[in-house]
Amino acid sequence: MLCTVLLLEQMKLQQLVKALGWDYEPFEIPAEVYADFKENVADRGASAYEAWTKLVADYKEAHPELAAEVEAIIEGTRSS
Question: Assuming Cys at both sites, which of 5, 59, 64, 72 could form a disulfide with 78, CB separation 3.0 to 4.6 Å?
């Protein structure tokens, strides 16, 4: 029974691969996928991180005492 289920699943997978036009070997990642990841995840994440660090720096400058308290809470060094 298990062999039949596995065979059917393999056939479904082959149909899906054919329908998608996926002409790559298992574990082969097309260059377009890497490029898309870099543009939509890595680069966007770097931009967001830069914006966040600027926001934090501006907050520290505007509210040094509160910023120090927040930092102590995050680091776990705030005394009760």
Answer: 72
Convert the chain into a string of H (helix), E (strand) and C (coil).
Answer: CHHHHHHHHHHHHHHHHHHHCCCCCCCCCCHHHHHHHHHHHHHHHHHHHHHHHHHHHHHHHHCHHHHHHHHHHHHCCCCC
Q: 24 and 34 in contact (C-beta within 8 Å)? A: no
The model carries a pTM of 0.52
Q: What interhelical angle do 64-75 and 43-62 show, nearest 10?
A: 120
